């Protein structure tokens, strides 16, 4: 039976039918696995953001005021699409992996077990504190280069 409200029990089925808990040790190991996956999610997000900021800094050409601005900046040139930037490719792969982990964490929370919910939130909090807390000062510059936003 699938629960549709938050419940508190050591009996939970998580993600697949074979991942069932029926005792305190198995339940606590499941909660630990959820917390570790949440910390890993924040670590991967930190790596992806750092890789993207490094590749953006390396790819930024020096500004030359004598050069004319491109006629259509929103349409990339075909030659730029053909080149494979390894940093951009790695950042895209990290984005995919991190998205998959994030969706799996969301599905785990959708088990509606209170302990699973709290362990994932605690893991995300600890992971943010360990890996991404220093991003607060730099994220505005990385995410949005416009000073007016």
Percent range for helical residues?
Answer: 55-70%
- Mean pLDDT over the residues: 82
Largest sheet: 2 strands, antiparallel
Say how many strands there are.
2
Q: What is the helix/strand order?
A: EEHHHHH
Shape type: elongated
Total count of helical runs of at least 4 residues: 5
Termini separation comes to: 48 Å
How much is the radius of gyration in Å?
A: 21 Å
How does the helix and strand content classify structurally?
mainly alpha
Q: Strands across the major sheet, in which order?
A: 1-2
Quickly list its features.
149 residues, two-stranded antiparallel ribbon, 5 helices, 2 strands, transport
Would you kindly provide a written description of the structure presented here, covering whatever features stand out?
The protein is mainly alpha-helical and 149 residues long. The protein has a domain at 34-56 and 85-142. The chain is built from 5 helices and 2 strands, in the order E-E-H-H-H-H-H. It has helices at 24-59, 78-82, 86-109, 114-132, 135-143; strands at residues 12-13, 20-21. Strand 1 (12-13) and strand 2 form a beta hairpin. The N and C termini lie far apart (48 Å). Keywords: Copper, Copper transport, Ion transport, Membrane, Transmembrane, Transmembrane helix, Transport. InterPro entries: Cop_transporter.
């Amino acid at each position: 039976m699938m629960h549709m409200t938050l419940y508190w029990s050591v009996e939970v089925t998580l993600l697949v039918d074979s991942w069932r808990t029926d005792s305190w040790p198995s339940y606590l190991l499941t909660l630990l696995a959820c917390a570790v996956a949440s910390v890993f999610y924040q670590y991967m997000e930190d790596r992806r953001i750092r890789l993207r900021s490094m590749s953006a800094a390396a790819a930024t050409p020096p500004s030359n005021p004598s050069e004319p601005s491109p006629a259509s900046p929103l349409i990339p040139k075909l030659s730029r699409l053909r080149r494979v930037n390894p940093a951009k490719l790695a950042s895209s792969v990290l984005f995919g992996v991190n998205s998959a982990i994030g969706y799996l964490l969301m599905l785990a929370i959708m088990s509606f077990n209170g302990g699973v919910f709290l362990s994932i939130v605690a893991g995300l909090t600890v992971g943010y504190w360990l890996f991404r807390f220093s991003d607060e000062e730099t994220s505005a510059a990385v995410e949005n280069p416009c000073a007016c936003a």
